[in-house]
Every structure is written in C-alpha cells, then in structure tokens.
Amino acid sequence: MENLMLYILKVNGLLLVFYFAYHFLLRKETFFQSNRIFLLLGIATSFVLPLLSFTTIIWVDPEPLATSYTYETLPLGSFENQIEAEPFNWNQFLFSCYLLVCIFFLGKLLIELFSFFRIIKKGTKIKSEKIVLVETNESQNPFSFFNYLVINKQNFSPEELELILVHEKIHILQKHSIDVLISKLLCLIFWVNPMVWRYRKAILENLEFIADQQTSARTNKTYEYQKTLLKAVICANQLSITNQFYQSLIKKRIVMLNTNPSSKKQLWKYSIALPLILGFIFCFQIETIAQVKENQKQTPQKAQQSQEKVELRIDKNSTDEQIKKETTYLQEKYDVTVKVSKIKRNAANEIVGLKVDYKDGKGNSGSSQISGDEPIKPFVFFMNNHNGKRNMGFQSLSNSGNKPAVYVYRNNDENEEEEDVVAYAFDDENIPAPPAPPAPPALGKMKALPAPPSPPNFPAPPAVPSDLTSEKAMKEFEEKMAAFEMSMKKMQPQMEQFEKEMEKYEMEMEGFEPDMKAFEKQMEKFEKEMEAYQEKMMKNRYVYVEKIEKMKDKEAYRVQDKAHQEAMMKAHKEAMEAHKMEMKAHKEALKQQLEAEKMRMKAEMERSKAEQKRRAEELKKI
Predict the structure, then answer these.
(1) CA distance to 26, 106, 275, per residue, from 40 (Å)
(2) Structural domain boundaries, residue 519
C-alpha cells in the first residue's frame, strides 16, 4: 500500500512539472504539433519514470570489530505473542474511498460512450474513404470521435459546413480522439489533483489550435472561419469524450488564429523540462548502497588472513522490493541463493511471519521460519569468508546498536600480535523446546468473574413533618406512609429473589477456589520443568575459539573461552528466573483479585442489610 501511494505521489509530481513547463513557457507559442508531443510525453514519462530506479555504491571504511557481543538466539519456531486488537486501518479506508470516486468517474465515461453510440445508431451514416459522416436531426454540436463525424446540416450554410468538415477531418486523420481519451482516463485516475484537470484542458485547447491553424491554412478563409466559430457558440456542448467544433475557449482560438508564427529560436524552451526531470531522478530514483571496502594496506602475509562479511538485514519494515534486490545481489556476487517466502504482513504493512532458505555452491544450506501476530524482531542472514572458510547462518540483533550477536572475528593489529577469533553459537537443531507456562484461571476455565446481583431499588421513606401539631401536614404524612408501606410490601418478592441470587453468587465464587489451587500446583510443576530445561540448554551450547596463525611459525591451536561462556549462560539463566518471578507475581495478582471481589460483595451485602435495618428503625420511630 505504501509503495502504491508513493508511486501515485511521484506521478502527480511529474505531471505538475510538465504542466507548469507548458503553461509558463509553451502555451503562447504556435508550435502546436510539438506541444501535443510534449504533453503526451509528459504523461508517459510521469507513469514510467517512477518505476525506474538507479543504484550507486559508496565505499566506507570497515568498522573495528568489537571484542565481545551479547548472544541472543533467533527463534526458529512460532513466537508466543500477546494477541492485540488490530487498529482501524485509515489508509485502507481512504484508499477505498478514492477507488469509489474513480469508479464513479468510470461510470460517467461509460454513460458518455453509450450516448455516443446511441447517436450513431439513430443517425444517417455516409461512408467516405476513412471517414463515416453521421447526419442527425438533433440540436447537436458538430463533433468527431475517431473516424465518426456527427453533424446537423440544418444549422449551417454550405460554406460553413465546408469549413466545419475540414476542421473535423483534421481531428479524425490526426487521431486526436486518442489524446482526448488519454486525458479523460488521466482525470479518472488522479481526480483528486486539480492540476490534472488543467492538464486535460491544456491538451484539448492545443488540439483545437492544431485544427484551427490547419483549417485556416487549407481553406485560406480565416475571416469566414472565425464567423463560423462565433455562430457555433449557440450550440450545446455535449459529450466530453469527443472533439467538438465549439469549445468554451472561442476567444483564445480566435486570438491564436491571428497570432504570428513563433520564431524557431523559441524551441529551446522544450529543453527546460530536461533538468527538472534529472533533478527528480537524483532526488527520488537513486538508491545508495554502502559497501565495506577491503583494507589495502596489508602486507602479503596479512592478505592471506583476509576476512569478508556480507549481511542481509530484515526487519518488520522491510519491503518486498528491498528483499528481492538484496537477495539478487547475493546470488550474482557470491553465488548464494537466499529465498524469502511466505511473507505475512499485518494491517500496518509490518512483517509478522516469513520463511528464509539459503544454499550455496559449496553445500552449505539452512532455513528459518518465523510466524506469529506481532512484528518480527530485526535479524540478519550473514556470510563470512575467513581465510578461505565460509560460515553462513542467521543472527538476531542485540538491543545495543543492532550489532550482530554471533561469529565475531578480531584481526591482528599493526604490531602483528596474535588475537583470538571467537564464534559463539548454539546447536539450533537440538535446542530443547521450553516448557509452556500454565494458563492462569483468568485465561483458562475462569474466563470472567460472575457479575454480582444488583440489589432492588428501595423506595425512599417520606420525611417526618417539622411541625407535628399541624393536622394538615400530619395527614399528608400519613397518606405518604400508607403509600410507602404498600410499596415495601410489593418489594418483598424482589428482596427474597435478591437473597437467593446472592447465595448463588457466593457458591459460584467458591467454585473458583479449586481452579486457583490447581493453578498453584501447575506452577510448581512448571518451575521444575524450567530447571530441567536450563540443564538441557547447558548441554546443548558450545563455544569455539580458534587461534589465528602466528606471523612467524604459522602454528595454530584451539582453546575454550570459559569465562565468556559462563557469563552468557548466567545471563540466560537470570532471564528465565525473571520470567518465573513474573508468573508468580501474576498468580498472586489473581489471588488478590479474587479476594478483593469477595470482600467487595460481602461489603455490598452488609451495606444492603444495614440500609434495610436503618429504614426499619426509621419506621419504628414514626
């Protein structure tokens, strides 16, 4: 969706460039045929140029390799993500509204085509060479559409008919209807841009200038032709898809008929669009790729220890075009086939799932698949060529700087002192699956706590009169009390029903106690499984440390970097402990929620009983 919107913006931007170039530089010149070509080329260029892209490569110095990185395993299975409600997609809504308006204009175009063929069907047709003359009795403006010329001869004299026929034949022979349809479709697609409608108007004006100029030149009756134009003003302007003899620009057409031909020195104005197009290409159609340059200041011995590292980075915002371009580069440059398939995106056009397979000519191959509902975390496919050895695989990116987390190499420094080349990894094929935490009651059997019953609305007792000696006030009070007692008697069934519902509610709340006890047992089992999982993870890790060859005796050997290994596993263990503590906290929160709900309902019951008792005491006092 984003790529389509960007393409539409670029097309409209180029159309503006060509329109302003025509309006300010070419509109008043008499190079009408050249203007026609310029306007049509403007439309073609605007649609084609945004589809082309040019790539430039800049060479940057290699960054010094870090001495240590934080290892983070890239998940190869499905993620356990929290499912969230998708937000309303405004982009899709606006795009749908845009398409509806396009369909509306398309319907208008089809109606005009239907009206045209209806006129053709009713009229009398006379075929002459490549032109079909259609005579009609309707009060219709003379017009042409492709090889059809429609006219009402009763409205014009023979001399005027001759001029009109010459004018419309020029439209037909030069295929001006193609220009009209192209401009109509342009407005249909980009109706929201007001400059596009002006662009269409410029095309129609220029076509009439062409026909007027050549009609005047062929008949040599400029004055009579101008009178015919003025007479045609009384006719109605009908179908917008046709070349009509009358247009609403009569004054402009007469002015252009009397304008002297432009000097050929003014042809330089057509070249103004060229630097504007080049500027558009440099600003929007050139992509820059950074390439790490090789170290040229190596001795012959150091050159033997060269290292080359290539990465294909993919994150949630990667586009299909970017992925295709980078995989093609790996195929052509390094003979490594990387296939990215099953790409799944959410409503925000973010990647939430994909599958990556790689294979090279040396037999190295592998794959990784990610699926879920949350956007993927950034990761890279890497390829290292180190002293003739090739390492390939997937790397997740750490939180600090998005640096690769595995396969770290350190070259010798200028003093030619030996340094370690360390690669940390896990045996991805044998990584044990972590145990699934138990679902808390709120997500399992207990989907929602039962709603407490609502107590009945008791009528308010009447207020005791301030003057107890007043017979009138006491009489009104007694009448109100009688009505109040009747209301309370009617409320008795509701009170009994409320007490039954409260008893049922208390029983339902007690039903959640077994679920909580079962959940606590499952949590204890989960903690034991987590301890067993950590032991399996310790068995599956491996650390590989290789000594670089010494510059003098070329002796190499391998050792184990235990300190880094233990630090890495300690961090992993702490993360698992933190997850376990979170689950315990969630369990405690659920228990507190149940206790709070019970206390609230007991308080509600006590409040209801106290209210009844208070009202009963007030009645006794009265």
Answers:
(1) 14, 21, 18
(2) 471-621
